[in-house]
Amino acid sequence: MISFDFKYFKPSSVAETIEAYNGVHEQGEKALFISGGTEFITFARTNKIYTDAIIDSKGIPECNVLEMRDDNLVIGAAVSLNKITNSNLFPFLGATVKQIADHTSRNKITIGGNINSELIYKESILPLLLVDAKVKLAKGNDERAVLLNSVFNRKLNLSSGELLLQIIIDSSNIDLPYISLKRTKFSKVGYPVVSVAAILKDNRLRVAFSGVCGYPFRSDKIENIVNDSTIPVVNRIDQVMDNLPSSIVDDLQGSREYRAFVLKNVLLDVMEEMEMGE
Ligand SMILES: Cc1cc2nc3c(=O)[nH]c(=O)nc-3n(C[C@H](O)[C@H](O)[C@H](O)COP(=O)(O)OP(=O)(O)OC[C@H]3O[C@@H](n4cnc5c(N)ncnc54)[C@H](O)[C@@H]3O)c2cc1C
Q1: Which ligand 1 atom sits closest to the C-alpha of 116?
Q2: Which of 35, 65, 229, 248 is the most exposed place for a label (fewest CB within 10 A)?
Q3: 125-145 pLDDT per residue, tens
Q4: What's the whole-model pTM score?
């Protein structure tokens, strides 16, 4: 049960959404956008979150788009993870999000909700960081499309009242060789101990991580190391371990030492699979 009352809005356009948000805000109250609503419900039930109103983005047509438009794949923020996988429009993203939660939950969990999750994992962001995806954001009367890499730093940096509308991927980045490897503590379904996604573009490996540090990341420094063919692969992996952007997570899913051990093995698998040298 949720212990507090809140207003529920389900606008059918971006303009109505902003109007609803401003209306709540003007009364000095807090409004929260939701897409699938699963995280909101979980956090509200356990009093980890409070809001006076929720604004459901599922009724906004732009947030439900999933199609090729000219040379771009456009994915609305309210599209479920299962729809992305089943569409097969972007196999790398489809394979990565298929590793999140169980099949029933993935019918509800949306890509916008996963990217903006309060949890540290946000695994759907990994392929998007690697293919230089853009995000379309709306605030007030303004809409802007910007490179995800320019607004994602540990989390998607949205300003108050800013809504993620869509994710846009250039079709030239859709069919690159990829690998997406996730290791969990017990079963296939579970938060990642380590999740690594990689693509090969212009003979260079691009790689992104979740579950390792307290946020998902892609790092130029790490990509320079993994692509340095003058160094044996095992030594490159040791160097990666020395150049992580912050300390390795140490929690109930896995100790720091265990995660480091798993990460080294996953990196070895990635390098082997992508034929990155001996
Ligand atoms: C059983 C289970 C297993 C899971 N396993 C994993 C896992 O292995 N890996 C992983 O990465 N995650 C995992 N998750 C976490 C899940 O991906 C997140 O909780 C995700 O936020 C749920 O998506 P949603 O659409 O229901 O989010 P919602 O509850 O709708 O929203 C989540 C957050 O995103 C914000 N938000 C939503 N839409 C927008 C928008 N359009 N613009 C701006 N902000 C928005 C909301 O305000 C809220 O803060 C798991 C969840 C469950 C239930």
Answers
A1: 34
A2: 229
A3: 999 999 999 999 999 889 999
A4: 0.97
